[in-house]
Amino acid sequence: MAQLNADKRVLIADLHGDRIRAASGSMVAVEGDVEFKNAGLGGGGGMRAALKRAVAGESISLMDCTGSGRVYLAKDALDVLVVDLAGDTLTAESEHILAVTDGLRLDVQFSGLRGMTSGQGLATTSVTGQGQVALISHGPVMALEVAPGNDLVVDPDAYLGSRGRLQMGLVSGVSWRSLVGEGTGEPFSLRFSGSGLVLVQSSEG
Q1: What distance in Å separates the CA atoms of residue 18 and residue 67, rounded to the nearest whole number?
Q2: Structure confidence at residue 171 (pLDDT)
Q3: pLDDT at residue number 173
Q4: Which of 99, 164, 184, 198 has the fewest CB atoms lying closer than 10 Å?
Q5: DSSP string, 141-175
Q6: How far is C-alpha 38 from the chain's CA centre?
Q7: By the 8 A CB rule, do 151 and 191 touch?
Q8: Block means of pLDDT (10 residues each) for the chain, length 205 residues?
Q9: How far is CA 50 from the centre of its chain?
């Protein structure tokens, strides 16, 4: 099975006669016998997922990387984080997905509350199954725990992704970005309740 490993701002993907899907244009070097081709509509998630992305304004362009060898992937010198999934689901905005191993299913959820606050999309991409997913972020990532009775409020521009049994809602009011004059005129934050982890990037994109 393909193995993903993060080395700061570079993702190293070792292929053993199998396949990964990676963000189009993210390959910076390759060793061995690896072929690259467009993954098609929806990045391999199927026509239904592609149509949902088109309606939601959520775009994801992936390429298939198939063969045996080592592929080095990077995008805009952003930090790389690898998340292991064991049959569960990771939810993230598609712009943060760098690569996924074969066997993981990508779909769109119409829960893009961040899009309502930042105009960067009206849906989020869910990655489900057994395997690995590589995310890119602006700076190191913090994994913050949410527990019943212990809600978490996150700045929309710092939100990277989440996993677990979480509910996401909007919190209105003056955010710290509004106080320092960097707000967009939309003083909203994201509130997470339930049980799970929220991934937050240390520098807003």
Answers
A1: 6
A2: 83
A3: 62
A4: 184
A5: EEEEEEBTTB-EEE-GGGEEEEEEEEEEEEEES--
A6: 19
A7: yes
A8: 95 97 95 88 50 50 94 97 95 91 84 48 79 96 95 91 91 58 62 95 77
A9: 17
Tokens of 87: 């049959």
Q: Are 62 and 26 within 8 A, CB to CB?
A: no
SS3 55: helix
| Kind plus residue range of the DSSP H or E element containing 50 | helix 47-56
Separation CA 198–CA 131 (nearest Å)? 19
- Per-residue DSSP letter, 75: S
The residue written with tokens 């080095």 in the block is 72
Distance CA 58, CA 60 (A): 7
Q: Is the dihedral of CA 51, 105, 90, 167 positive or negative?
A: positive
CA separation (Å) from 179 to 22, 154, 189, 191? 38, 16, 13, 19
Both tokens of 200, joined, read 């937050």
For residues 146 and 193, the answer to whether their CB atoms sit within 8 Å is yes
pTM across the whole model: 0.81
Per-residue pLDDT, 49? 53
Instruction: Yes or no: say if 181 and 123 are a contact pair by the CB < 8 Å rule.
Output: no
